[in-house]
Design a protein that fits this description.
Elements lengths: L6 E3 L2 E3 L3 E6 L6 E7 L2 H20 L2 H17 L1 H12 L3 H23 L4 E4 L10 E9 L2 E5 L7 H12 L3 E5 L5 H14 L6 E3 L4 H10 L5 E5 L2 H11 L4 E4 L4 E5 L5 H13 L9 E7 H16 L18 H16 L3 E2 L5 E2 L2 E2 L2 E4 L16 E7 L2 H10 L2 E2 L1 E5 L3 H10 L4 E4 L15 E2 L2 E2 L4 H7 L1 E9 L2
Helix pairs in contact: 2-4, 2-6, 3-4, 3-6, 4-5, 5-14, 9-10
The structure holds NADP nicotinamide-adenine-dinucleotide phosphate and glyceraldehyde-3-phosphate.
Length: 475
């Protein structure tokens, strides 16, 4: 019988009148039923959260940290159990799914510790008119209130934890909306918060399709901060609906790997393939195009090709490198990009093959800027190689993208790499490594259509707090 999952609201597990059936993308098997919350139920979530805010924010950092450490311990204990379901629900290799849960526990522990280091400051007047010299400002951080955390299908647990833990340690209360495909895993994450015994209403879940309840949960005046990871169109929509309220948006990307003549080509190829094809390319930070200097292109392309041909293709439970994509719409989109590149004359160096939603990894050489693949985010296992004549051309093509998440530069000339990094319109530049989010205490952000706001544990806490000054005059 299909397992029925429940939402966690105000310290209780709750059913809704309607459900959504979740299927495994790889096998098509039924995985479970999750509630499709009504707008009245969302109102109750938000009212319960606000009721809990006063007492939660009144706790000391050390008291809130103790709850978070408990949650992290539970996740570590249950990592294999949750990972097994997560692997099935989003067709992610089993080992990667387990590491996603462990990484979430690590973020939660780190956020708890970081909270202990939160401090305000005392400012002295006197820098302006003479009368101000007696003024003192005591500046302290305060929670923003109710944080709505929305995670995407590709990291439904980890990109939830990276929002929820910094929000809670800062004294906020949380409503967490997981992606529909990923909501069972999200509710398993909620079980850890429930078992850790957080006071009722501090942490709550909302399940339901974004297309049905998304606007309602975002526009609702009870929400004080929206922390979203997902696609750029939905992020832009949320940005418009947020009005004056603060937001954090982690959106799409088109990360370039720029390869110079002096690069270590073996290391470069290894990182490019891992970066482009990990979780079948369904990572915001995946390497999504290679901009290689013509002089080393032939050698690099051959090395990349060998490694792409060695990728394993199959099912998530066998830890295959390439697994079926999340749904048919995603696979159709990737196929469209592949067909466009092929029709416009790109050389496919691996076989183009699709079985259902499983797309075999495709390496395209000689991709040109008139092809969609040069600009669009596939979120699938296809990698375009664009040959360039100069570093300036590589920088120009990289910056022409509407996105600006990350980039990699492969070279042994570090001063030159720093000079290039300075010119790239992205949030992070990696030297001699693949583009990637971690480690999770580093700032993580996107320029242009890749996002707004800065994540990374300390930065997330800062974003989800505001400052309040108390000013007085000394005698
Ligand atoms: P998505 O379709 O935008 O969905 C993301 C989340 O938003 C899901 O929970 C979804 O719920 C919800 N949602 C949908 N419509 C909504 C609305 N109107 N209001 C509020 N929430 C709404 O993205 P995805 O397909 O899950 O994830 C893939 C995309 O995310 C890619 O573009 C990728 O680059 C990006 N991403 C970016 C980062 C980053 O850090 N920059 C990280 C990971 C992923 P439903 O599932 O119920 O529709
Ligand atoms: O999909 C986007 C994630 O934030 C990527 O994280 O680089 O650690 O795989 P990752």
């Amino acid at each position: 019988m299909t397992k029925q999952y429940k939402d966690y609201v105000n310290g209780e597990w709750k059913l809704s009148k309607n459900d959504i059936k979740i299927y495994e993308p790889a096998s098509g098997a039924e995985l479970g039923l999750v509630p499709a919350m009504s707008t009245e139920e969302v109102d109750y979530v938000y009212a319960s959260a606000h009721k809990a805010l006063k007492e939660w924010r009144a706790l000391s950092y050390v008291e809130r940290a103790a709850y978070l450490h408990k949650v992290a311990d539970i996740l570590e204990r249950d990592a294999e159990k949750i990972g097994a379901v997560l692997s099935k629900e989003v067709a992610k290799g089993y080992k990667s799914a387990v590491s996603e849960v462990i990484r979430t526990a690590e973020i939660i522990n780190y956020a708890a510790e970081e909270g202990l280091r939160m401090e305000g400051e005392v400012l002295e007047g006197g820098s302006f008119e003479a009368a101000s010299k007696k003024k003192i400002a005591v500046v302290r951080r305060e929670p923003v209130g109710l944080v709505l955390a929305i995670s995407p299908f590709n990291y439904p647990v980890n990109l939830a934890g990276s929002k929820i833990a910094p929000a809670l340690i800062a004294g906020n209360v949380v409503a967490f909306k997981p992606p529909t495909q990923g909501s069972i895993s999200g509710l398993l994450l909620a079980e850890a918060f429930a078992e850790a015994g957080l006071p009722a209403g501090v942490f709550n879940t909302i399940t339901g399709r974004g297309s049905e309840i998304g606007d309602y949960i975002v526009e609702h005046p009870a929400v004080n901060f929206i922390n979203f990871t997902g696609s750029t169109p939905i992020g832009e929509r949320i940005g418009r609906m947020a009005g004056m309220r603060p937001i954090m948006l982690e959106l799409g990307g088109k990360d370039s790997a720029i390869v110079l003549e002096d690069a270590d080509l073996e290391l470069t190829a290894k990182n490019i393939v891992a970066g482009a094809f990990g979780y079948s390319g369904q990572r915001c930070t995946a390497v999504k195009r290679v901009l290689v200097m013509e002089g080393v292109a032939d050698k690099l392309v051959e090395k990349i090709r060998e490694k792409v041909l060695a990728l394993t293709i199959g099912n998530p439970e066998n830890d295959a490198d390439i697994t079926p994509l999340i749904d048919t719409k995603a696979a159709d989109f990737v196929e469209g990009l592949i067909n466009d590149a092929k029709e416009k004359g790109a050389d496919n160096l691996t076989e183009i093959k699709r079985e259902g939603n499983l797309i075999c990894p495709v390496l395209f050489d000689k991709v040109t800027t008139d092809m969609r693949l040069a600009w669009e985010e596939p979120f699938g296992p296809v990698l375009p190689i664009i040959r360039v004549k100069s570093v300036e051309e590589a920088i120009a093509i990289s910056n022409q993208s509407e996105y600006g998440l990350q980039a990699s530069i492969f070279t042994n000339d570090f001063p030159r790499a720093f000079g290039i990094a300075e010119q790239l319109e992205v949030g992070t530049v990696h030297l001699n490594n693949k583009t990637q989010r971690g480690t999770d205490n580093f700032p993580f952000l996107g320029a242009k259509k890749s996002g707004a706001g800065i994540q990374g544990v300390k930065y997330s806490i800062e974003a989800m707090t505001t400052v309040k000054s108390v000013v007085f005059d000394i005698k």
